[in-house]
Amino acid sequence: MTEKIQMTTPLVEMDGDEMTRILWQMIKDELILPFVDLKTEYYDLGLVKRDETGDQITKDAAEATKRLGVAVKCATITPNHQRMDEYKLHQMWKSPNGTIRSILDGTVFRTPITIPSIHPAVKNWEKPITIARHAYGDVYKSVEIRADEPGVAKLIFDGESGKHEEVVVHTFKGAGVLQAMHNTDKSIRSFAHSCFKFALDTNQSLWFSTKDTISKKYDAQFKIIFYEVFEEYKEEFEKRGLEFFYTLIDDAVARVIRSKGGFIWACKNYDGDVMSDMVSTAFGSLAMMTSVLVSPDGKYEYEAAHGTVTRHYYKYLKGEETSTNLWLPSSHGAVLCANVARWITCPNSCATLMLSRLPASTLSTRVSLRRTSQDSWKALLRRPRTLPASSLPSANAWRRSWHKMPTRNSTKRKRILLK
Fold it and tell me: Using alpha carbons only, how large is the chain's radius of gyration in Å?
């Protein structure tokens, strides 16, 4: 047995809900623990535990991330009324992702995972497009009122200095709804710094888009702050031949579709939520996307860019066979463990490709790196569909390894091999 890779610093492990909880355990058992002396500070963010602790465990996990610097988070449930009844919750807890992002003051960077055998739906896209999503405020921190009668809605601000501002939102003639949202200069500035630093770290140009022609104060403030912060990075951008480009969100969408890719697209919270799903799906699959939360001071949380696969979890509980695409957890698991070790022998394997997309500052800093044995490469071959064609061994090598692989279904094995 080859000596395991030793970790020098633990990372934060945040367990999740439903099927992703099952799959994450499989990833650890099969692809990590046999090769890495894994050291983690464990937090169970499953819905039951969050309810038991009054969601304090989510806050504790975020604080641990600030202390240790790197975290791994599985997909979690954000409860609705149905989940309230199903899990008999004390209250409808907020999104764990939103809580963690708020505490870390981070920006979410989501990049499609590309492989030669899957072609983007947009034929001119040649390189991945990374979505930088502001992870604080806007509709995700909004408050709402259901107005069930005629009346006047007002937006009021009372400053500590005694300054008073008041504007009429709408005079209702009948029933309606109200929503108020906010953001802070501090959070927007942190968002801008994270984007510019990530762009330099990955050597990519940065696009930014809002709708300041309509939102002349809210969206305009994002634009003003981004240009102010850019002055600190302008010289380095010019030195590397990188571009900072601002345009309206609708124009940005049109330009993105016509582009060849290969840049970072910074978006406000809601825009980033929507566009990351659109971009990843257009590149091949919603599951094939990395999601990294980066704080301005360099703390990293590698989170799931997908849900908890509820339908398959219910089948799993009944003892039924599920067909969850193991690319989803395997690829994500490899990215999440980027700070554990660079433990794949083949230089063109999926995990190494994904590793190459991460900022250089996050790699090779927390463990001593060692080459793995041929046994670990064979272990990876047990998931043949997770490997790009460019990294596959020769046909004879495949056959030799294939006969040694355990399998539950020889017919299925042959069918995959023929593909």
Answer: 23
Report the C-alpha gap between 403 and 111 in whole angstroms: 35
| 324 or 123, which is more confident | 123
Q: What phi, psi does 410 have (nearest 5°)?
A: -65, -35
Total Cβ atoms within 10 A of residue 214: 11
H/E segment holding residue 52: helix 47-52
AA identity, residue 369: L
Backbone φ and ψ for 245, nearest 5 degrees, come out as -130, 125
The CA-based angle 17-20-26, given to 5 degrees, is 125
31: three-class secondary structure by DSSP: helix
Sign of CA dihedral 186, 190, 192, 193: positive
CA distance 253 to 244: 16
294 bridge partner residues: 107, 300
Q: What is the DSSP string of 16-33?
A: -SHHHHHHHHHHIIIIIT
DSSP for residue 7: B
Query: What gap in Å lies between CA 229 and CA 222, rounded to an integer?
Result: 11
Angle at CA 289, nearest 5°, toward 287 and 295? Answer: 130
Q: What is the largest CA-CA distance in the chain?
A: 79
Q: Which residue type sits at 363?
A: L
Whether 408 shows a pLDDT value over 70: the answer reads no
Residues 34 and 379: beta-carbon distance below 8 Å: yes
pLDDT in tens, 161-191: 999 999 999 999 999 999 999 999 999 999 9
For residue 132, the SS3 value is strand
Helices (H) and strands (E) counted in the chain, each on its own, are 15, 16
Q: What is the pTM for the complete model shown? A: 0.70
